[in-house]
Amino acid sequence: MSQRRPTLRYRPIRTERLFNPSRLYSTVNWASFPAVLVEFNKQLRAWYIAPAKVLMKKSGHYSFAALSITCTLVDTLSQYHSGKTQGTRGDFIRFCRKHIPSAKKRFKTPIPIVKGKKVEYLNDPAEVLYYGVRCGVIHEAHTKLYAAISGSDDRSVCKYHENGLAEYSRNGRDFKSCPTVVFDPGLLLDSVTRFLRSYLLALNDPNPVNDRLRERFKRKFFASFGVQL
Question: Given a cut of 70, is residue 152 above it in pLDDT?
Fold first, then answer.
């Protein structure tokens, strides 16, 4: 007979912990949803957006770290938007396809990857951002070679290169050209920041059409911070 998975619930000591750089939990007006959104916005900007901008301003060679932070922000926002307490591959990819320009444009030639014991294919930049950047950084401490980081000359978040940047082989000898996606970390961050602004406006809009969006936000918020809104 299988045992039930144990559950633990955490909550902050409100007078001792910061919710964002300028507010203790105890000084946030939790009874006011608009006030909570203001402090939540400050938190995301302090934890993710400001550090990424500082890194990119300091040096283009710090773009790897900036892109890593932005992927974490995408993970975060996809969870709030879907009401999930933990991130999933599907939520991350769907979020990118819907809210990041050009992320859902299908490739002329898909990119092969190994998943488990078989070869599968990545068909758009959203999938490359997840497998090649997000998972590459977390699991292997670098982006996959079918993903690259650079500024763009055509103001696009990502650019597909049919060949010229990477090769792959199935047997270790006969290499052939592999498509590569180059991400502009600054433009990606700008795109995600624009989404954050529109998302907060929708959450703050009392129109009933946004009720489901608010319930998803509150579910994730409670799981993350132990505060019932």
Answer: no
Block residue for tokens 């907060």: 200
Does the reported pTM lie above 0.70? Answer: yes
Q: What is the pLDDT of residues 86-123, one digit of tens each?
A: 889 999 999 999 999 889 999 999 999 998 889 999 99
Beta bridge partners of 180: 161
Domain locations along the chain: 30-225
**Is the separation of the CB atoms in 143 and 64 below 8 Å?**
yes
Q: Is-contact 162 177, C-beta < 8 A?
A: yes
Q: Which of 129, 98, 118, 105 is nearest to 199 (CA)?
A: 98
3-state SS, the chain, equals CCCCCCCCCCCCCCCCCEEECCEEHHHCCCCCHHHHHHHHHHHHHHHHHHHHHHHHHHCHHHHHHHHHHHHHHHHHHHHHHHCCCCCCHHHHHHHHHHHCCCCCCCCCCCEEEEECCEEEEECCHHHHHHHHHHHHHHHHCCCCCCEEECCCCCCCCEEEEEEEEEEECCCCCCCEEEEEEEECHHHHHHHHHHHHHHHHHHHHCCCHHHHHHHHHHHHHHHHHHCCCC
Positive or negative, the Cα torsion across 48, 179, 113, 91? positive
Residue with tokens 């939540």, as numbered in its chain: 40
Greatest CA separation for the chain: 64
Reported as a pLDDT band with limits 50, 70 and 90, residue 138 is confident
Residue 128 in contact with residue 181, Cβ under 8 Å? yes
* Both tokens assigned to 169: 């082989």
